[in-house]
């Protein structure tokens, strides 16, 4: 089932697939930046020039990167599954399980999108910032909300694909 949904390269679904793949690659670049920053911080600590706020930026970067991977995992079928329970299932039941998983992912993404948007507004209204760099917390919510919106779209795409399999 992996990459089944990414295979459609034409039309709106192909465009969305490429967008989701690009978003995941950007998340990978954020993760790489966090690793490089932490490497620089460790080396800098040895020579008396630490990287100020490395813990804060690690926290934000890892969170943003993790959310960026969610739509790709949904679309490519790379989410964690319990194959031991479904190894003997017929294609019909596998499609039913896939449909149910897509519905749960869609509900999950809609719920998180709603609540994370409320969190963004709270963080912005109360002007929360990180302690050292004074980085506004609400800025980290923007790529997370984009990730959740893409997760909802990916869930709709996998739901439609599973429905077609039935």
TrEMBL record:
GO annotations of cellular component type:
plasma membrane
Q: Where in the cell is it found?
A: Cell inner membrane; Cell membrane
What molecular functions are annotated in GO for this chain? transmembrane transporter activity
Q: Which domain of life is it from?
A: Bacteria
* Pfam families assigned: DctQ
Q: Does the keyword Iron-sulfur apply?
A: no
Q: Which InterPro entries match?
A: DctQ
TM ranges are: 20-43, 55-72, 92-117, 138-161
Record bears the keyword Kinase: no
Look up and give the membrane topology term: Multi-pass membrane protein
Q: Which UniProt keywords apply?
A: Cell inner membrane, Cell membrane, Membrane, Transmembrane, Transmembrane helix, Transport
Tripartite ATP-independent periplasmic transporters DctQ component domain location is 35-163
Function recorded in the entry: Part of the tripartite ATP-independent periplasmic (TRAP) transport system.
Family, according to the entry, reads as follows: Belongs to the TRAP transporter small permease family.
What assembly does the database describe for this protein? Answer: The complex comprises the extracytoplasmic solute receptor protein and the two transmembrane proteins.
| Protein known as | TRAP transporter small permease protein
Organism name: Primorskyibacter flagellatus
